[in-house]
Amino acid sequence: MSKKYRSLLSATGLMLALIQPAMAAEKTEVLHWWTTEAQSKAVKVFADAFNAAGGQWVDNAIVNGDVAKPTGINRIVGGNPPTVMMMNAGKQFGELADAGLLRNLDDVGSAENWKQVLPADVLEAVSRDGHIYAVPVNLQTPNWLWYNKALFEKFKVQEPKTWEEFFAAADTFKAGGVIALAFGAQPWQQHQLFNGVLAGAGGRELYLSIFRDKKPEATETPEFKRVAEVYAKIRSYTDPGTPNRSFNEAASMVITGKAAMHIMGDWEKGEFSAAGWVAGKDYGCVLGLGEQNFLMDSNVFIMPKASSEAASQSQALMAKIMLDKDVQVNFNNLKGSMPVRNDVDTSGLDACSKIGLEVLKDPSKQLAGPDWLAGADMLNSLADVVVQYWATPSQTPEEFAQKYAAVLEQFQD
Fold first, then answer.
1. pLDDT tens digit sequence for 240-284
2. Of residues 361 and 405, more confidently modeled
3. Are residues 117 and 344 in contact, defined by beta-carbon separation less than 8 angstroms?
4. Cα–Cα distance for residue pair 210/191, rounded to 1 Å
5. Fewer CB within 10 Å, N or C, the chain?
6. Percent of the chain residues topping a pLDDT of 70
7. Cα angle at 396 between 390 and 402, to 5 degrees?
8. In sequence order, what are the residues at sequence separation of 6 or more whose Cβ sits closer than 8 angstroms to the Cβ of residue 161?
């Protein structure tokens, strides 16, 4: 087996008119990892709209993206692909496209004017060699700080904007017997938190020198040492129950007042909404402690090459449904993210989404997410180093920097 394949293994009326009669009987398996209550409600928007348009959605929800992604990739490479599969925008699906295993969506994109209604950076992140291979369904960032407003008022704590202010607030909660920071020590959460610290405490240039330029010498800078120190210090404000805690369990700790804060992506709002919480009233939000950078991220759906014309037609319908204006608004309101289309009505978005939209108006605050800049092999290797650092309090920032640099050296062009 080649190295590449080893790597692969590690509205509505118009739509109905385009569907052949055979389409009605074609089951469309959709593999994804949206399994919390809030996420399930959001993905049901897609399913209901697809079924109403004549499709037959067959849900294959797998808990944890770290399990779902390799499962789906193995099936695609093995010749038994799902009809549609969720991924993240960026380089993750590039090798699948290069191997000729994904459907080119240029025809759908052209018919639906995607180049006019989608941000250029997003289009680039779902394309390979100028061709579109994925359907982006939202715009989100993983580096939000969420907090329980009632606890902040009770302890007379001000909303933090910097890491220094965060630690001062955390000290107050810790002294008052409240868990300062809810956290789940799962690899993806650990790496995501570190990347947020890298962007916010290390700064834009350090972040890009690592993920875009892959420079090992970047780890020798005072800025990287500060990132390592901040990340290590965060551990002292979490509780002993962090191992393998899911993000929604951590969100529940904030909702119940067991913890004061949580650092997580926009999807956190879905959990708050499911609990009846209102942005700005029950919970507050800060985008990017330190440098207020919006780490660009987007959930996407890829379409493995279909084995039948009916399956191909169902994929085309799915792509159109997912980017329908009304579907976009309804889905993202439940998911907690922002519509990826730039021509939808955003007046109904919550207070936190409006903060994100305002930041996005400034290109200097936009940063391509790690998945947009680096391949899965590099990111997984860096995640291993970060996870080990979190689990090893005796490891110094200097030792961590050496291990991190060793990974970057392996992936220099």
1. 999 999 999 999 999 999 999 999 999 999 999 999 999 999 999
2. 405
3. no
4. 14
5. C
6. 94
7. 95
8. 286, 289
**Residue with tokens 């290109």, as numbered in its chain:** 363
Average confidence (pLDDT) over 137-165 = 97
Pair of tokens at residue 112: 């639906």
Q: What is the mean pLDDT of residues 307-336?
A: 95
Please name every residue paired with 261 in a beta bridge, in sequence order, or none if there are none.
147, 181
Size of the chain in residues: 413
What does the pLDDT read at residue 210? 98
- Please determine, for residue 24, whether its predicted confidence score (pLDDT) is greater than 50: no
For CA atoms 25, 29, 34, 35, give the dihedral sign: positive
- What is the rounded CA–CA span in Å between residue 30 and residue 301? 9
Cβ partners under 8 Å of residue 78, min gap 6: none
pLDDT at 163: 97
Sequence letter at residue 236: S
Written as one letter, the residue type at 327 is V
Cα separation of the two ends of the chain: 24
Q: What is the pLDDT of residue 362?
A: 87
For 138, phi then psi, to 5°, come to -160, 175
Question: Is residue 359 very low, low, confident or very high in pLDDT (cuts 50, 70, 90)?
Answer: confident
What is the SS3 assignment for the chain? CCHHHHHHHCCCHHHHHHCCHHHHHCCEEEEECCCCHHHHHHHHHHHHHHHHCCCCEEEEECCCHHHHHHHHHHHHHCCCCCCEEEEECCCCCHHHHHCCCECCCHHHHHHCCHHHHCCHHHHHHCEECCEECEEECCEECCCEEEEEHHHHHHCCCCCCCCHHHHHHHHHHHHHCCCEEEECCECHHHHHHHHHHHHHHHHCHHHHHHHHCCCCHHHHHCHHHHHHHHHHHHHHHHCCCCCECCCHHHHHHHHHCCCEEEEEECCCHHHHHHHCCCCECCCEEEEECCCCCCEEEECEEEECECCCCHHHHHHHHHHHHHHCCHHHHHHHHHHHCCECCCCCCCCCCCCHHHHHHHHHHCCHHHEEECHHHHCCHHHHHHHHHHHHHHHHCCCCCHHHHHHHHHHHHHHCCC
Give the residue, 345 or 413, on which the prediction is more confident.
345
With pLDDT > 90 as the criterion, what percentage of the chain qualifies?
Answer: 83
Q: How far apart are CA 135 and CA 114, in angstroms?
A: 10
